[in-house]
Request: fold
Amino acid sequence: MKLFRSIVVPFLLLIPVLVFAAAPLGYYSALNGKKDADLKTAAHSVIRNFTKSSSNDAIYSGLPDYFRKTDIRPGTNYWWDMYSSRLRNAGSFSGLNREHSFPKSWWGGSTSVNAYIDLNHLYPSDQSANTAKSNYPLGTVDRNSTITFDNGVALVGYPVNGQGGLAPKVFEPDDDYKGDFARTYFYMVTCYQDYSWATKYAYMLEQNTYPTLSQWAVDLLLKWHRQDPVDQKEIDRNEAVYKIQNNRNPFIDLPELAEYIWGTKKGEPFSPGEVIVPPTGDPVLLSPVKDMELDFGQVAIGNSATTQLFVSGQFLQGTIKAQVYTADAAMFTASETKIPADQVCSENGYWLNIVYDPTTIGSHTARVLLSGDFGSCGVALKGECFPVPILSACTATEPTDIESDSYTANWTAPDGEDIDYFIVTRTRYTGANVVTEEIVAEENYALIDDFDGSDSEAYSVQSVRLGYRSPMSNVVFVEHSGISGVETQQPLVVKSFNGFIRFICSQPQDNCRIYDAAGRLFRFIDRVEQNLDIELPYGVYFITTDAHPAPVKAVVR
Reply:
């Protein structure tokens, strides 16, 4: 059950009251009168620029600190985890992951793009649920088939007919959070409509700026959007994210927007009434948010961190002054002290560089004040400086869960060292070609889900702290399990029946693996023998044993 979802006033007949935090006057004015593709592109233009407090690596490392502002249950010190019902104290991030609810593999996995560190789709997530969710799309799990993960909140399994977009499985959140995830996905396909999606994972996506979502995805997300309306949790989180990165999720502020772009009001000019007030001509500073905080995170002595503060407005004249002041002002520098108002009011706004260059170890704070004909706006600056870390090499260990198209890379880290995350260097050798890629991992393992049978493959690992990397670990080579044929093997026959299969073999065989039609390991049996019956749900399966590694096909009806 979701707690703190609304504010209840007993004497008002127990009707939930949502306290909306309004966007600045004129923030969404560009949407007025637009429709369909033009409306979606207008929303894209409003939200695509946001302030990044530091480098992507530093922001990713510091996500738990941001989550303390965005994902704490009101009145408690517990994380608000939409992937499990377990209450974890926010004094520690143990047992949780930094979860890209919109999987990063869908845009190719790049860690240098804005989507990688966009808080509008990043949430703290139970580790086991995050692992089970993998990069599957949202969807409705078929309760009549095998459910591979169920913790009472997050559900992973095979999709119902018409959903999944050919994905092997889908992730279904709890009913209380389905609207939250739907509006998150609406935001992502609008903010990043100009991205190219990885073809392999385009389960819900199309390669275009409109509608970007495939039809089955539109139908599902609109259904969830309607069934689970915007609540106080989303409103509060939207405002907290806005104060951190200066952009908002318009589908939380303006829930009807989804209907105009994809739903029942498609084809109609967007006209939300009093929610958007037409500009009056008065000077308005839209970004940054007054009293927001730029947290530069943790920096090693001798290094610096740079952020770009997004400055935008309407009807401003003259220049905008920028001044850094207070005790630690010497640690922070703004690239400009006078900004032309016409640049601030342009379509692309103005990016003000601010550098944190600490000269002493410890915590440092300052403020940057923007002033002009709109009045003034102060932004807090915060950073922390540490000694340069000394890191030891990790030890890469043998892979586990090797299947036809995936495996888990494993390693151990030195005891007692502070580590932000790990970098797995994966090398594939195919004939004369060598392909190397780097994969970010938070735990001491990483799922490799595109093990495609190249000639050979290897991985090594480094730990990362404050942007510094440890020495490279040893290298581990990976081979496929015995799913490919060998020259000699013992006879194995598998007969199919309604709801089960029967093994016919002249002698017992060890380590039986039953794979589903997607090539994933469905069931493992230590030993099979003559006339052994195994119950299985409807589907196509491929069976191997150590003595018979060539797969045997079985169709259960």
